[in-house]
Write a structure and sequence with these properties.
This protein is an alpha/beta fold. The chain is 22% helix and 24% strand.
Length: 153
């Protein structure tokens, strides 16, 4: 079980949270989602298979309109848009061969419409083209256990 109190963002920020299962990671993501404002930008960092999309799934499914949504990694399609409140655009930039400007993906429309962006592999973005509100870093400490750090920027 995670060491997280429900709906207490200050306790989530700039601390190490612990997850011992995918369910724990989803719960941490769900708790975090309660603090997303329209237009929030969230970078999600971590190695392949560490649970970036699991964290995003927890957030997306906890929002109004997200309960029954199937949420998976957008690795092969680059992005999925979810009709939650607020609307979520979940991007996975792992397969990009070179750094890109998110304007090429529709960033201006998403910002104008105040969508929430979850961006996996943000190191593929041209520096300074976007500034996140939050950065989530997930690290594997064993096969099942994860350390999750959420910082505000």
């Amino acid at each position: 079980m995670s060491n997280l109190k429900k709906n207490n963002l200050p306790e989530m920020l700039n601390k190490t949270l612990y997850s011992s299962s995918m369910e724990d990671t989803e719960k941490i993501g769900a708790n975090f989602a309660g603090y997303l404002d329209h237009g929030s930008i969230v970078y999600i960092l971590g190695d392949i298979g560490v649970g970036k999309s699991v964290f995003a799934r927890g957030s997306i499914q906890s929002l109004p309109g997200g309960k029954d949504l199937i949420v998976r990694s957008p690795t092969f399609l680059y992005l999925f848009e979810y009709p939650t409140t607020p609307t979520i655009v979940h991007l996975d930039l792992y397969r990009l061969k070179e750094k890109t400007n998110l304007l090429d993906f529709g960033l201006d429309e998403w910002i104008q419409n105040k969508y929430v962006l979850f961006i996996e592999w943000p190191q593929h973005i041209i520096e300074d083209s976007i500034i996140p509100n939050y950065t989530v870093e997930i690290k594997a400490v064993s096969r099942e256990n994860r350390e999750i750090e959420i910082s505000d920027n």
